[in-house]
Fold:
Amino acid sequence: MAPITVVEGRRLALSNLEKVLYPATGFTKGEVLHYYATVAEVLLPHLRDRAVSFLRYPDGPDGQVFFTKNVPPGTPEWVTTAEVPRVEGPSRMVLVQDLPSLMWAANLVTEFHTHQWLVDTPDEADRIVFDLDPGAPASIVQCCEVALWLRERLADDGIEAYAKTSGSKGLHLLAAVRGASSEQVSEYAKELAVEAEKAMPRLALHRMTRSLRPGKVFVDWSQNAARKTTATPYTLRARPEPAVSAPVTWEEIERCEAPARLDFDARDLAPRVRDHGDLLAPLLDAERAGSLP
Structure:
């Protein structure tokens, strides 16, 4: 029988705690749950009021990996859910609003992915995101060069950008915006991606064409579409090691000379949060949100 844990008054059955999920390091499911409990204070504000898509990997990254968008069977009645618009019709999805819900979801073994809009205002985007994806032999080092250009370009329009690692090979740029639909944000993001390619033709690419990507950084603007989701800050990723989508400073980006400089896993995050707090906290301040030109 799975041990019962009480989290803020909610009873949770946490299963298979000794199971190794990350074979490269021996990182167990129990350690995954401990990680999420440790970063809950900074993670939860980025999940709250956003419909969550789960990318589940219950047997580790080498096992079956699959998306769950609808409310999973067996979801406790105290977990908040909401009806959200989707192309195929309204769907009911999970909202991770508190620590018990976070620990319940973490027990499913999942990456957390969220939209760039809040569930109460699905017609208005509150984020713009650029997914900078390097094509070998390019790496996150080249992503940093593109990120610095995009940061300055966004600043020209009065939009303040922040960065996190993708938890894989690349980098995510995020900024808070207001007063625009997902379609309008997507159009603006594409314009900037095209500008980046013109400014750095040997480095940046706005087209998804695979044959063009070796040695360049694909500036993926398409994740601003209302239907798309992006890995949530602080989520673990389904990689051989417990890699994290970790917020980083602009100083770290400016000084990145090797991919290892921006390679973070679960064991790195507690001291980073202690030293920096939530580097993406400004995204949660509506007063700092920018408007599209």
User: Anything to note?
Assistant: The longest strand covers residues 125-134. The mean pLDDT is 96.
